[in-house]
Amino acid sequence: MADSSIDWEAIERSPDFRALVASRRRFVLLWGGGGVGLCAAFVVISYLAPDVLGEALGWVVGVALIVITWAVSFAYLRKSDAEWAPMEERVVASVHEPSGRFERAGERERVS
Predict the structure, then answer these.
(1) 101 DSSP 8-state letter
(2) DSSP secondary-structure letter at 99?
(3) What is the span of the domain harbouring residue 68?
(4) pLDDT of amino acid 93
(5) Pairwise CA distance, residues 11 & 92, whole Å
(6) Does the residue 70 lie in any domain?
(7) Which residues, at least 6 apart from 94, have a Cβ–Cβ distance to it below 8 Å?
(8) Which pLDDT value is given to residue 29?
């Protein structure tokens, strides 16, 4: 159920929120798209021209793709902590929610 005290449209129009979304989109399109493109190229080359990579080079390139995937994941986490988390905090601070984010105004119920 949506909380009617939060003006979601105003948040979406805020410059901080737009900058956050644009920064994340650029990172994902550039690095994620590049990683997927490299993986797709590897599969296509391996299928259409198996002699191009050979057995040894194919293994090396395959392992390199795994390392690249981990490197992109690590870069995303670092950028998220260093850049996007402060941007998120600025967006949340601009909302001025009286009871805190995703918390009930009254007593919290214990679930056992």
Answers:
(1) T
(2) S
(3) 64-94
(4) 84
(5) 9
(6) yes
(7) 11, 14, 16
(8) 95
Specify the number of domains making up the chain: 1
Half-sphere exposure at residue 11, Cβ-oriented, CA atoms within 13 angstroms: 17
Task: Return the amino acid letter for 107.
Answer: E
pLDDT tens per residue, range 69-93: 999 999 999 999 999 999 999 888 8
Tell me if 83 is assigned to some domain: yes
72, part of any domain: yes
State both tokens at 32: 């994620």
Yes or no: say if 44 and 112 are a contact pair by the CB < 8 Å rule.
no
Show the tokens assigned to 1: 């159920």
Place of tokens 């009617």: 4
Residues 11, 91: contact at Cβ < 8 Å?
A: yes
Give the model confidence (pLDDT) of 25-61 as tens digits.
999 999 999 999 999 999 999 999 888 888 889 899 9
Which residue type occupies 37?
G
Tokens representing 20?
Answer: 């956050």
Cα-based distances in Å from 1 to 6, 12, 31, 89, 100 = 12, 19, 35, 23, 16
- Smallest CA-to-CA distance from 54 within 44, 46, 42, 43 is with 46
